[in-house]
Design goal:
By secondary structure, this protein is mainly alpha-helical. 66% of the residues lie in helices and 1% in strands.
Length: 418
């Protein structure tokens, strides 16, 4: 649960067992996780022109970093209190229960999407083979061994790789917490060493490529998990450490704001937008002679999404700092009220975004299924400004309804009536 007290957000965490305290939700976590959920829906909808305006097109990092970072902060609140209050054993048990929930969410999501695509193909009404859009040929051709791989997480198709990564990162949490109880430096050392072990290109450069740490993604090839959990745990535990107080919150000052702004702006010419607009269209450079593409290829290890390259981390931290500054102290600017039309509109939109952020797992599952539905709808009604707007805004509405529905069920209203 994304909760914190008003006086303890981003403050030093307790070193001994803490006493239970009254808590309220942190609006910043709910808000930014909600924004990430909307972006994830856009990014996974095939042929969606609105993806030209998501963060991933303008810099190295994207909504995945935002979601994993905020999940780390939320985990520090939810699980950190359990570790403090109930001890390492029960804290580990609670983390294990969450992994169990995420595991079955992952399995259910896979079968829901696979069934939906197969049902479309069974109609025989379309030239496109929809199971092929997610490269599920092998699963339907040889379901027996792939079912074993699916349930053991040794078969992880690319579209279904975020939740497995999240499960492994959660499984690392008790170990990091245990080491941090001895010394925070030990916990930090483990996180950094795991990240270094995940950097394939860096290890290859120093002759240690055989030590690259990742997990197999399918039994019939050497493909590994697209989201390498040993790389991505760095951004998760950065958020975790900030919320626990292991890392002090950065001050808000002009120098840091300028540095963060320069990093974000400097990323644009090297981004996907930079490749298309700055390098090719504005300067008329041929695709094969594009210096930005050549730079990206030569420095792939620094921006690699799979292993979580260091420049993605730097870009995300700069964006996160700017967001942290804009949100104000404990989200005061987010929650500010006003009398203008824009302020009144914001006051009505903000609760919807925050509700989506509060129910992130349920919303994520629905968004991944909905993205394929939206792609199918666009295939049939065409892709133009009006249809993109209709499909995307309708999708946003579905996510909001899902969030409120999940919240209603979690509140167990039948108990109150009884």
């Amino acid at each position: 649960m994304t909760t914190t007290t008003p006086n303890t957000a981003f403050q030093n965490g307790p070193t001994a067992r803490a006493q239970p305290v009254a808590a309220i939700r942190d609006p910043r976590l709910d808000f930014f996780r909600g924004i990430a959920m909307f972006i994830i829906l856009l990014a996974h909808t095939p042929g969606n022109a609105w993806t030209s305006w998501i963060p991933a097109r303008w810099g190295f990092s994207d909504a995945t970093e935002m979601f994993v970072f905020c999940s780390g902060m939320a985990s520090a609140i939810a699980f950190g209190r359990t570790f403090d209050r109930a001890g390492l054993g029960l804290g580990t048990a609670r983390v294990g229960f969450r992994i169990w929930q995420v595991y079955w969410a992952h399995i259910g999501m896979f079968f829901a999407i696979a069934m939906m695509l197969a049902a479309i193909d069974q109609t025989g009404a379309y030239d496109k083979v929809y199971i092929g859009t997610l490269n599920l040929w092998k699963f339907f051709a040889e379901p027996g061994p792939q079912l074993v791989g699916l349930f053991t997480l040794s078969y992880v198709p690319n579209y279904f790789d975020i939740l497995p990564m999240y499960m492994v990162v959660l499984a690392l949490m008790p170990l990091v917490v245990a080491l941090a109880r001895i010394s925070r430096a030990l916990g930090a050392a483990l996180v950094i060493l795991l990240w270094l072990a995940a950097q394939e290109r860096l290890l290859t450069m120093v002759g240690l490529g055989g030590l690259h740490l990742n997990l197999p993604a399918e039994p019939w090839s050497e493909r590994q998990w697209f989201f390498n959990p040993f790389g991505w745990q760095l951004v998760f535990f950065t958020g975790f450490a900030l919320m626990r107080g292991w890392i002090p919150a950065p001050p808000i000052n002009k120098a840091l704001l300028i540095v963060a702004g320069v990093i974000v702006i400097a990323n644009v010419p090297l981004s996907n937008i930079g490749v298309r607009a700055v390098s090719r269209e504005w300067f008329g450079l041929a695709f094969e002679n594009n210096p930005v593409i050549e730079w990206r290829v030569a420095n792939k290890g620094l921006i690699d999404k799979s292993d979580f390259g260091i420049l993605r981390y730097v870009h995300f931290l700069a964006l996160a700092y700017l967001g942290y500054a804009l949100a104000g102290h404990k989200g005061a600017r987010l929650m500010a009220h006003g009398t203008s039309l824009a302020a009144r509109v914001w006051e009505n939109i903000l609760p919807l975004i925050m509700k989506v952020g509060q129910q992130s797992l349920a919303v994520f599952i629905v968004s991944m299924v909905l993205a394929r539905v939206n792609g199918f709808v666009l295939d049939n009604i065409g892709r133009e400004a009006a249809t993109w707007t209709l499909v995307n805004l309708t999708g946003f509405g579905v996510l909001v309804l899902c969030a409120y529905g999940a919240g209603w069920f979690k509140s167990q209203p039948w108990r109150a009536r009884a």
